[in-house]
Write a structure and sequence with these properties.
This protein has 171 residues and is an alpha+beta fold. The chain is 36% helix and 26% strand.
Length: 171
Amino acid sequence: MEDKIFPANLSEVCSKREAAMVKQIFLDLCEVKRYWDVEYLFESTHRKTFITAKLSKTQKPSLFVPSHLSDSTNFLEMRRLLSLNNDQKFHSIFLAFINADTTCVYYQINEGLLQPKAITSKHLVRNSQNIRDSLIRKNKDLIEQSASYGIPITLKLDPGDDESTDHRKDV
Protein backbone atom coordinates (compact mmCIF):
# COMPACT_ATOMS: atom_id res chain seq x y z
CA MET A 1 0.00 0.00 0.00
CA GLU A 2 2.71 2.51 0.95
CA ASP A 3 6.17 2.67 -0.57
CA LYS A 4 9.13 4.78 0.45
CA ILE A 5 10.44 6.65 -2.57
CA PHE A 6 13.60 8.54 -3.29
CA PRO A 7 13.78 12.09 -4.72
CA ALA A 8 15.01 10.79 -8.09
CA ASN A 9 11.79 8.74 -8.44
CA LEU A 10 9.50 11.54 -7.27
CA SER A 11 8.82 12.91 -10.75
CA GLU A 12 7.90 9.39 -11.91
CA VAL A 13 5.05 9.00 -9.41
CA CYS A 14 3.51 12.49 -9.42
CA SER A 15 3.13 15.62 -11.55
CA LYS A 16 5.85 18.27 -11.73
CA ARG A 17 3.70 20.68 -9.71
CA GLU A 18 3.13 18.13 -6.94
CA ALA A 19 6.82 17.12 -6.99
CA ALA A 20 7.86 20.76 -6.53
CA MET A 21 5.42 21.19 -3.60
CA VAL A 22 6.57 17.98 -1.94
CA LYS A 23 10.24 18.91 -2.30
CA GLN A 24 9.65 22.39 -0.84
CA ILE A 25 7.80 21.01 2.17
CA PHE A 26 10.51 18.35 2.57
CA LEU A 27 13.16 21.09 2.68
CA ASP A 28 11.10 23.19 5.11
CA LEU A 29 10.72 20.25 7.50
CA CYS A 30 14.42 19.38 7.30
CA GLU A 31 16.08 22.79 7.32
CA VAL A 32 13.62 25.18 8.99
CA LYS A 33 11.57 23.00 11.35
CA ARG A 34 14.49 20.58 12.01
CA TYR A 35 12.45 17.38 12.02
CA TRP A 36 14.16 13.98 12.21
CA ASP A 37 14.00 11.11 9.68
CA VAL A 38 12.14 13.06 6.99
CA GLU A 39 11.09 10.70 4.17
CA TYR A 40 8.88 10.66 1.10
CA LEU A 41 5.99 8.19 1.13
CA PHE A 42 3.85 7.18 -1.85
CA GLU A 43 0.35 5.83 -1.19
CA SER A 44 -0.44 3.76 -4.27
CA THR A 45 -4.22 3.32 -3.87
CA HIS A 46 -4.87 7.08 -4.13
CA ARG A 47 -1.66 7.89 -6.05
CA LYS A 48 -0.67 10.56 -3.52
CA THR A 49 2.77 11.50 -2.21
CA PHE A 50 3.17 12.25 1.49
CA ILE A 51 6.04 13.11 3.79
CA THR A 52 6.73 11.47 7.13
CA ALA A 53 8.90 13.12 9.79
CA LYS A 54 9.62 12.88 13.50
CA LEU A 55 9.63 15.89 15.80
CA SER A 56 12.18 14.09 17.98
CA LYS A 57 14.28 10.98 17.46
CA THR A 58 12.14 8.82 19.74
CA GLN A 59 8.68 10.05 18.70
CA LYS A 60 6.46 8.25 16.20
CA PRO A 61 6.49 9.93 12.78
CA SER A 62 3.88 12.48 11.76
CA LEU A 63 2.28 12.41 8.32
CA PHE A 64 2.39 15.59 6.21
CA VAL A 65 -0.02 15.97 3.29
CA PRO A 66 1.32 18.49 0.74
CA SER A 67 -1.26 20.76 -0.85
CA HIS A 68 -1.13 24.00 -2.77
CA LEU A 69 -2.89 26.95 -1.17
CA SER A 70 -5.28 27.23 -4.14
CA ASP A 71 -6.35 23.56 -3.83
CA SER A 72 -9.52 22.88 -1.90
CA THR A 73 -9.79 20.22 0.80
CA ASN A 74 -13.21 19.03 1.94
CA PHE A 75 -14.30 17.02 4.96
CA LEU A 76 -14.48 13.77 2.99
CA GLU A 77 -10.84 14.21 1.98
CA MET A 78 -9.88 14.86 5.61
CA ARG A 79 -11.80 11.76 6.70
CA ARG A 80 -9.88 9.71 4.11
CA LEU A 81 -6.60 11.14 5.40
CA LEU A 82 -7.53 10.30 8.98
CA SER A 83 -8.32 6.74 7.90
CA LEU A 84 -4.67 6.36 6.88
CA ASN A 85 -3.89 6.43 10.59
CA ASN A 86 -6.38 3.73 11.67
CA ASP A 87 -3.52 1.56 12.90
CA GLN A 88 -2.08 4.49 14.90
CA LYS A 89 1.17 4.35 12.94
CA PHE A 90 1.52 8.15 12.92
CA HIS A 91 1.76 10.52 15.86
CA SER A 92 -0.38 13.09 14.03
CA ILE A 93 -1.49 14.17 10.55
CA PHE A 94 -0.83 17.64 9.14
CA LEU A 95 -2.15 19.39 6.06
CA ALA A 96 0.89 21.19 4.64
CA PHE A 97 -0.18 24.14 2.51
CA ILE A 98 2.37 25.88 0.34
CA ASN A 99 1.97 29.27 -1.31
CA ALA A 100 3.55 30.43 -4.57
CA ASP A 101 6.20 32.32 -2.57
CA THR A 102 7.19 28.97 -0.89
CA THR A 103 5.60 29.88 2.45
CA CYS A 104 4.61 26.67 4.23
CA VAL A 105 1.74 26.53 6.74
CA TYR A 106 0.86 23.39 8.70
CA TYR A 107 -2.57 22.50 10.12
CA GLN A 108 -2.99 19.45 12.32
CA ILE A 109 -6.17 17.49 11.64
CA ASN A 110 -7.89 15.25 14.19
CA GLU A 111 -11.03 13.21 14.59
CA GLY A 112 -13.44 15.67 16.21
CA LEU A 113 -12.54 18.75 18.24
CA LEU A 114 -9.65 18.89 20.68
CA GLN A 115 -8.90 21.15 23.61
CA PRO A 116 -6.27 23.79 22.74
CA LYS A 117 -2.83 23.05 24.12
CA ALA A 118 -1.06 25.58 26.31
CA ILE A 119 2.22 26.89 24.99
CA THR A 120 5.05 25.21 26.83
CA SER A 121 7.53 27.23 28.80
CA LYS A 122 10.33 25.62 26.77
CA HIS A 123 8.84 27.20 23.64
CA LEU A 124 8.64 30.61 25.34
CA VAL A 125 12.24 30.38 26.56
CA ARG A 126 13.48 29.44 23.08
CA ASN A 127 11.51 32.30 21.53
CA SER A 128 12.84 34.89 24.01
CA GLN A 129 16.38 33.59 23.46
CA ASN A 130 15.95 34.10 19.70
CA ILE A 131 14.67 37.65 20.28
CA ARG A 132 17.61 38.44 22.59
CA ASP A 133 20.12 36.95 20.15
CA SER A 134 18.77 38.99 17.24
CA LEU A 135 18.74 42.17 19.37
CA ILE A 136 22.38 41.61 20.34
CA ARG A 137 23.37 40.94 16.70
CA LYS A 138 21.53 44.08 15.58
CA ASN A 139 23.27 46.28 18.19
CA LYS A 140 26.69 44.61 18.10
CA ASP A 141 28.61 47.80 17.25
CA LEU A 142 26.87 49.81 19.97
CA ILE A 143 27.59 47.09 22.55
CA GLU A 144 31.28 46.97 21.57
CA GLN A 145 31.60 50.77 21.78
CA SER A 146 29.89 51.00 25.17
CA ALA A 147 32.07 48.17 26.53
CA SER A 148 35.26 49.89 25.35
CA TYR A 149 34.26 53.21 27.01
CA GLY A 150 32.75 51.61 30.12
CA ILE A 151 29.28 53.05 29.51
CA PRO A 152 26.44 50.77 30.63
CA ILE A 153 23.49 50.40 28.23
CA THR A 154 20.15 48.63 28.39
CA LEU A 155 18.69 46.93 25.34
CA LYS A 156 14.90 46.85 25.36
CA LEU A 157 13.14 43.66 24.25
CA ASP A 158 9.84 45.44 23.60
CA PRO A 159 9.28 45.36 19.81
CA GLY A 160 6.73 48.21 20.09
CA ASP A 161 9.39 50.77 20.95
CA ASP A 162 10.98 52.64 18.08
CA GLU A 163 14.10 53.21 20.15
CA SER A 164 15.65 49.78 20.79
CA THR A 165 18.31 51.00 23.23
CA ASP A 166 18.21 53.05 26.38
CA HIS A 167 21.48 54.90 26.89
CA ARG A 168 22.30 55.53 30.54
CA LYS A 169 25.43 57.08 31.95
CA ASP A 170 27.00 55.51 34.97
CA VAL A 171 26.59 58.01 37.83
